[in-house]
Amino acid sequence: MPLYEYKCEACGEAFERVRRTSERAAPVVCPVCGERGSAERVWSTVAVRVSTRPAAPRNGAEQLAGPGVRGLGTARDHGRSSILNAGCGGIGHRH
Question: HEC string of 64-93?
Answer without folding.
Answer: HHCCCCCCCCCCCCCCCCHHHHHCCCCCCC
